[in-house]
Amino acid sequence: MVTNTPIPQKGGSLFGSTTINWEDAYKGPNIMWRVPRNIRLNDNIVVREDEIAVFFRDGKVLAYFDRPDRYALTSLNAPIVGGLVKALSGVRQEAEVYYLQKRLFDGKFGSSEPYVFKDPDFGLVSLRVYGSYRWRLGAPDVFITQFVGTFGATSSADVESRLRDQMVILVYSSLGKMKDQGLRVTDLAGQLQTIEQAILGFAPQHFGPLGVEVQRSKASRSTCPTRYRRP
Amino acid sequence: MASAPPTSPADSSSESTSSSVCPTCHAKVPSGSRFCPNCGASLAAAAGGAATNPPADLRQRVDQDRGTLKRLELLIPGYHGYRQGEDIRAADSLLRRQVADRLRNARMAAENARTALTQANRFNDTMELAPLLADLMRIEPKIRSAEQGYSGIAAAIRVGPQQLDKLYEYDYGFAVAADQFAALIRALPIQVASGDYAQVAQTVAAARARLTELDSAFGARMRVVEGIQV
What is this model's ipTM? Predict the structure, then answer.
């Protein structure tokens, strides 16, 4: 049987096992979901095309289930045996499953502090950059250590709060490099696509260590003081 | 490629089984080794990569690993065909994921080339790579999540174990094609590093043409396998 939420803490069938999947209603903006149950022997998990499941037993990653299918898991939490061991010695095996979403998420970024851009025509110009970016899980093994293990992040917003500042730094450093090659304030609007490619070119060194891949970045608005907008 | 039958996995059985020599330390290594047991050097490049060392027939592997429950299912009338079909689909899925992984590796090589271009302040040249990367981002998930071959009850065109076998063999051709494609893309970061930007543009154009070909052949895969391609 496929369980509807809430996932039972234990039981679910005569044998004590059940079938678990990540209900759509609970997916939404969540990048990660920890199955709220200590996995029992023969608990089945359903992994869909857009998901990866990570199976931890006694704190160790045993498997990344990246291929859509139904997987039967094993643990010492079996009928009779598991209860007997726990009653006699107090030992209980911790077996956990984390689901991760592989789909693309849309995030926004904006600079809180202006960036001083030295333009040959206008001199020092204060710029503020706003935009959006599209990211997704790049390396599940790195991601789960960086975000889930360290910060307990569950929602895309938790992850984006860490990515946002990094994005601003990335945009500024890309603009800085392009400025050194002759980019002017007046070129910004016409060069958006090149700026995007430059940002994406620099992105792996910023986001790779977090297990995140940035696939799109639109510095859609860069504002500068009104007096510079008029000819 | 849609009309030409892909290389069959059975071709791999004709490979020589004799031992070879490590190109780094010249020690004898057993045939099929990916690394030299003496010096640890990778032998994949020397062997020409996976293109000349095709993977085993995954269908046999899935069949061998059938557990008791699955073996019992094969004995039950009505369940037999389901089990058989599911196992070929599982093998095909494993195979297609490898094809998609090779395209992902190609995409990573193209992204490395883009990073190298930005670091070399060749910002306008990065625009050459953008359409190729967009194509790869579109095609890779398409292959990874492609339909596995299924027809319901009393379908006009049936998909049985025979068609699923054909589907596996057809998809096998993409493993070889994806390898060749990845080899082409792997040259990009080197071309950028050597400052040969004209060659970069040529490689990108050739890669895009090959990718379009691969995409259209993949799009026709179910029609070809079902024998309804006109």
Answer: 0.79
